[in-house]
Amino acid sequence: MHTTPQECRSALETARAHARGMADTLVATLAHMYPHAAYLTLNRCPDSRDLHLDSIRTTSGAILYTFENPADRLPGLTDPELLAAWGQTDPQDPQTLLRLLRNLDTLGVQFGFLPASAQRRDDPSWDAPSLLCLVVNTQAPEPEDGEQEVTVTVELTVTEEVTYEFTAEVEVPSHLTRAPGALHEYLAHNEELWLDSLDPAGGCITVNERSLDEASLVLTA
After folding, report:
1. pLDDT tens for residues 27-79?
2. In 117-142, which positions are buried (b, 16+ CB within 10 angstroms) versus exposed (e)?
3. Beta bridge mates, 149
4. Cα separation, 32 vs 75, whole angstroms
5. Range with the lowest mean pLDDT among 14-18, 81-85, 186-190, 214-218?
6. SS3 for 29?
7. Alpha-carbon gap, residue 197 to 192, rounded angstroms
């Protein structure tokens, strides 16, 4: 069975119409999840041309959500009509959204550039003049500035790469006093000679890198 050019053109037009409808569903879903959302921002890799999720932000550029951790999930969806539209597909999974957006991009759905009013100084510079975006609702209200702050107890796991500078008295073979390079290698392989002299609090001169690995609330009675 051969497909005619007319049938191919009709199939493409149908696919593009469904893509535009899926974009509308995605916009409505994000607006439901984030009532203050104005833009879903994206960046495009200059080498592969693949889209990547960046953030969800307000009209002024305030960040409501960043797609930094692939394991994170978006808020739950309660609207019956939207739930029916998603069917068995999980709209809370950012990777699901990314696959859909890449499909929409392939089918010709156009993404505009993020307006200057919503740009930030630390935005990626892969695209010029700015990030791409899917418009969610440019009339969405900004979050209230007076949101109440609360004090909580948190448990943190932090990894640091630091530099220490300290003095220590050690016993080494006498010939090492005339060979600085050999002295360094000897002490590197015999940490027990100087490790007790290391003062983590007083000997640190620089912190080269710090990362917050985990953060969780500590429930109190």
Report:
1. 999 999 999 999 999 988 777 788 899 999 999 999 999 988 878 899 988 89
2. ebbeeebeeebeebbbbbebbeebee
3. none
4. 9
5. 214-218
6. helix
7. 10
Closest to 211 in 3D by CA, of 167, 175, 172, 157:
157
Q: Is 104 exposed, middle or buried (0-12, 13-18, 19+ CB in 10 A)?
A: buried
d(CA 102, CA 115) in angstroms, rounded, equals 21
Cα(183)–Cα(6) distance, integer angstroms: 81
Phi first, then psi: give them for residue 89, nearest 5 degrees.
-85, 140
Instruction: Write down the mean pLDDT value for the chain.
Output: 82
Residue 154 backbone class (left: φ over 0; alpha: ψ -120 to 50; beta: rest):
beta
Distances (CA, A) of 170 to 92, 163, 202: 59, 20, 20
Is 96 buried (19+), middle (13-18) or exposed (0-12) by CB count in 10 A? middle
